[in-house]
Each structure stands twice: as structure tokens, then as C-alpha cells.
Amino acid sequence: MTTPPPDHLRLTRVDTEDRVRIELDGDLDHDTADLLVNEATAQLAARPGLGDLHLHCGRLGTIDPMGLSALLMISRRTTAAGVRLHLEDRPANLDRILRLTGTFDHLTAPEPLPGRSPGRRTH
What we know:
Layout: E1 10-15, E2 19-28, H1 33-46, E3 52-63, H2 65-81, E4 84-88, H3 92-100, H4 104-108
Parallel strand pairs: 2-3, 3-4
Antiparallel strand pairs: 1-2
Helix pairs in contact: 1-2
């Protein structure tokens, strides 16, 4: 019996001067989480003036605990860089895991009012 290969995550990047959008297509799991973290980290390092990092999740398949960990790691890195993280077009399975783990508000809360501390997330 042969085991089918794991689903892979394909990332497509769309850049503007102050914004990067990474489109996720496939599963975000143990096998693919590092791919997303590495790409997001590379974009943060290459663009010190970056204002927004958008992760477009419309074609996201399954997400496991390592995938959630990847999103939290990206959140920490964007916060440290003063970049706003946006999780866009979230599928129901992503919202479900965020709610079950208590991370929904942390990763999707609206941007704070001017003069408030940075680090909140938009959706």
C-alpha cells in the first residue's frame, strides 16, 4: 500500500510599496508551516517600511496545531516589526480553530484607535 503524498501549500505573493499579500493555497500543517513562516519573515526583513502583511486564506485547506503556531509566530514577528497583520477571506475551518483555541480575537481584532498601543489585528 502506498501513502499519498501530503498536500502542499502553495504561496503566491502580491507586493506593493507598503503592503504584501501572501495567498495561501493548500493545507497549513506540520509539513508546510515553516514555508509560510519563512516567507513572512523574509518579507518583514526585506521591507523595513512595510505597513501591512495580508494573508489571504480563501483557498486554505486544513489547518493543524502547527499551522496555528505558524500564524501566532507571524503575529509575534509582525507586531515586533510594527506591521499590521490581516487574515483575509478566512474559511470556516480557520475561524473554528481560532475560536476553539481562544486566539480568534488576538489574530482578528480590529486596529486600535490612534494613540493606542499597536499590535492588534484586522481581518
